[in-house]
Amino acid sequence: EQQQLTRRISERRAALRLGSGGDSAVGLLARRKQTSPSSVVVLEALSQALPDGTYVTELRIDGDKVQVVGMTQDAPSLIRLIEKSPQFARATFFAPTTRAQNEPGERFHIEAHITPSFGSST
Q1: pLDDT tens by residue, the chain, 122 residues
Q2: Any idea what DSSP says for residue 108?
Q3: Could you tell me where in the chain the CATH 3.30.1360.100 domains are found?
Q4: Fewest CB within 10 A of the end CB: N or C in the chain?
């Protein structure tokens, strides 16, 4: 019975690797890895692009877009800083920048397209 289970597992693994018509589960995952942005890479790129004194309170990654909400002293300058990063393109404000009396800076809402930069190896 154990040999039969081992054989079935081996057959299933082989079927997943080979797949039908090139659309194996492993192939689909590898393709997704190559075309989808890595959340860790996006977070690292943002942390390098944003200046000290800028605080992110919300971060959303949806497909090839990232939305960043937070506080800073000079919100318009963030667009240029984000676009200087090779990870991002077409950064824009998706909501008005506001300044409240009890807040130390400007509340910003920025959206940018993510440029996946992955190697071809899996």
Answers
A1: 888 999 998 888 777 666 544 556 667 777 777 666 778 888 999 999 999 999 999 999 988 899 999 999 999 999 999 999 999 999 999 999 998 888 888 999 999 999 866 444 43
A2: E
A3: 37-114
A4: N
For 86, residues 6+ apart whose C-beta sits below 8 A from its C-beta are 45, 115, 117
Alpha carbon distance 51, 72 (integer Å)? 9
Residues 6 or more apart whose Cβ sits within 8 Å of residue 30: 122
pTM above 0.85, yes or no: no
CATH 3.30.160.40 assigned to domain 37-114? The reply is: no
Q: Which residue pairs from 54-61 have beta carbons closer than 8 angstroms and sit at least 24 positions apart in sequence?
A: 54/78, 61/37, 61/114
CA distances from 42 to 24, 28, 70, 105, 110 (A): 28, 22, 16, 24, 14
